[in-house]
Amino acid sequence: MNSNTELSVPTKQAGTATTKNDNEQASESRTRLAPAVDIFEDSHGITLYADLPGVARETLDVRVQDGNLSIEAQAVVPAPSGLRLQHGEIRNPHFARTFTLSSDFDVSRIDAQLREGVLRLTIPRRDEARPRRIEITAG
């Protein structure tokens, strides 16, 4: 990215959150993961790709508020029928990631697409923030 553009990427947001089910007395642990993200920039804006395996569109939440872009999603990892889970490293992971956007970007025109577990966000640059060539006249 060029020096005029700001997209702050936090270093880590993974952790474990504990939630309680009203029907059970035991606590259940929910794994929180920061999805892997690739960000590309050109003169038109940025394109962000986030890996969200097992996430359906209905469980994906992308929001922009106060210059912050947040991605949250709940994945469902189905167990094959007829089999019993013997060992599970990650069950129903919750993805969460937040970015700070500069005012150079037009957040009202963000395009979001989810295909085969990959979220693609296209965030265009504001017209006035796009690089432009200055014509020089002979004087």
From TrEMBL:
SHSP domain: residues covered: 28-139
Composition bias, Basic and acidic residues: 21-31
Extent of Polar residues compositional bias: 1-20
Pfam families for the chain: HSP20 (PF00011)
Region of interest called Disordered, as start-end residue ranges on this chain: 1-31
InterPro entries for the chain: A-crystallin/Hsp20_dom, HSP20-like_chaperone, Small_HSP
CDD domains registered for this protein in UniProt: ACD_sHsps-like (cd06464)
Recorded family membership: Belongs to the small heat shock protein (HSP20) family.
Annotated protein name in UniProt: Heat-shock protein Hsp20
The organism of origin for this protein: Pandoraea anapnoica
